[in-house]
Prior knowledge:
2 copies of one chain form a homodimer. The first copy, chain A, is an alpha+beta fold. Helix content of chain A is about 35%, strand content about 25%. Chain A has helices at about 10-20, 65-80, 100-120, 165-175, 185-195, 200-210, 220-235, 250-255, 255-265, 280-285, 320-330; strands spanning about 35-40, 40-50, 85-95, 120-130, 135-140, 155-160, 215-220, 235-240, 270-275, 290-300, 305, 310-315. In chain A, α4 (about 165-175) crosses α5. Chain A is globular and about 55 Å long. The relative contact order of chain A is 0.16.
Amino acid sequence: MKLTRLEEKNLIEAIKQEFLESNKAVPVGLGDDAAVIKAGDTDLIVTKDLLIEDVHFVFSYHPARLLGKKSLNVNISDIAAMGGMPMYALLGLGLPERTDLEWISDFFAGLKSATRENGIALVGGDISRAKKIIISVTLIGEGKNIIRRSGAKPGHVLFVSGTLGDARQGLLLLKRGVRLGETKYADKLLKAFLDPTPPVQLGQELSRRKLVSAMIDISDGLSIDLGHICEESGCGAEVFLERLPLSPELCLLQRKRLAFALRGGEDYQLLFSVPEKKIRSLSELQEKYRITPIGRIISDPGLYVIDKKGRRKKTEIKGWHHFRKRVNRIESCE
Amino acid sequence: MKLTRLEEKNLIEAIKQEFLESNKAVPVGLGDDAAVIKAGDTDLIVTKDLLIEDVHFVFSYHPARLLGKKSLNVNISDIAAMGGMPMYALLGLGLPERTDLEWISDFFAGLKSATRENGIALVGGDISRAKKIIISVTLIGEGKNIIRRSGAKPGHVLFVSGTLGDARQGLLLLKRGVRLGETKYADKLLKAFLDPTPPVQLGQELSRRKLVSAMIDISDGLSIDLGHICEESGCGAEVFLERLPLSPELCLLQRKRLAFALRGGEDYQLLFSVPEKKIRSLSELQEKYRITPIGRIISDPGLYVIDKKGRRKKTEIKGWHHFRKRVNRIESCE
């Protein structure tokens, strides 16, 4: 059986089972946004993401500086989703012979700006030759009230930060030849894809104030990532389509904007569930951050979408299609 | 300027300088075997290594099970070189479509055997599609008396563990079509390359007993890695060629065995310097481990080799040629 025909969810499940025994002492192991390990009394949050040329990014689309930033920011997003504070980064970098010094210099300038913005120290890594550019960042953070995917309960209200679907539209524009600096409205969409900035402060405030029961970052698309929360929490969810926060730019350009918001991916926003009694406290944060209630957790283990006419439709909860989806994102996004 | 013509040492140096400011609070940052970070009162040792198909390994040479083991063991080697205890691993894996389930299953079986042997928990990671196989392991360990590269002083005696040059000869045999299971003496050499087992217990004992002043793992070859110790310690070294520990198998097969031992790479043995007054205590360890004195630290900042006739010859201290050398190792090793 080849990997294309393999159900990746099963692969990840098999790996989890295989390594379960050795992981008994680990607070959070395989299967959350990041792993949590104990170091003395400190809870450390550890995550790593591979960015591979032509799978996760296209060389000609992505300015080196923004790629350097994004390679750190996608990892920051995982730590933000647990309410943690990113602290130390390691970089594995595979570079083809064709890579010129200017590109390398720009890449590191972008990486540095993201470390500086977030108070992160780059402490180690490995550079090697490769046929395609490979960026492997490991990020280590600390967390006090670590928020997992598994605490959502029926009745809890679902919120998302920012707007959804912009990154997918940005990628679509890139594929059509649009580049940064041409028009303002396109720039906003292009930047959503090329230069995402995860709301790490929001994640930390939600954690410090203990306002949320479950949280995840939306990297694989709202429906898949909401599916993760439902699966880990043993519940379902309903989402009001007309409440999905959309940017005016996406609305202007994309007729399928709701599909983009539901399944676009690469948003790097936060999706979280809030117990009803804590919603008043949350409203204070709404002055500082764009946070939108989009639905609620239900006991029926399914994902339902409700359209503007009130019609309720069951949608399949998408599983862990990371592998296939990420590829699609570059290679066959409409 | 393209990367082939770039002095990689300068690149690493530039990166170190660029990120120096953000790293002030980090006990050991860029430029040792691994980074050391503080988590509460605990010193954590963090390292990561990329293994890329056709750069660091060749698919047809490397049984999946041994590749799974090696991908963890090369990282364990870095932590062993600081006297630490490996604890948590994260795996980033890029797999081509052609990869079949049996290969994946074997790879994870090998990885698991290495985690079990060393009491390591696999806590997280990322799987993605890729054109070539990419293995990116991050390993986190703990250390009490962390041994750096920088503590060697003139007069300290240099020791290595195990034998040197076998892995290079093993790779050479693989390139000539020799495979595991054909002859016993070839198997030993092939295994040195395909299935290295770093002496992690030795590293920990040396650290616990505070016997050594500087230590490094020999991954890039004795002369380069000794060069690192000299550079970081601000000294030089002399090596007695006839004392280099060679396996009978290497001696039998390779006329250039001394060159292989000096510059072979991938040995994953430990190289360390010992103050003279501690050599008596070290001798207790010699019953348990193969440890060989091969030379000593001198104040003159150069690397000298002394042949069996007592002729002393200066050798250029090889810098950080990781990048080019690793490529050579696969593509143009004699």
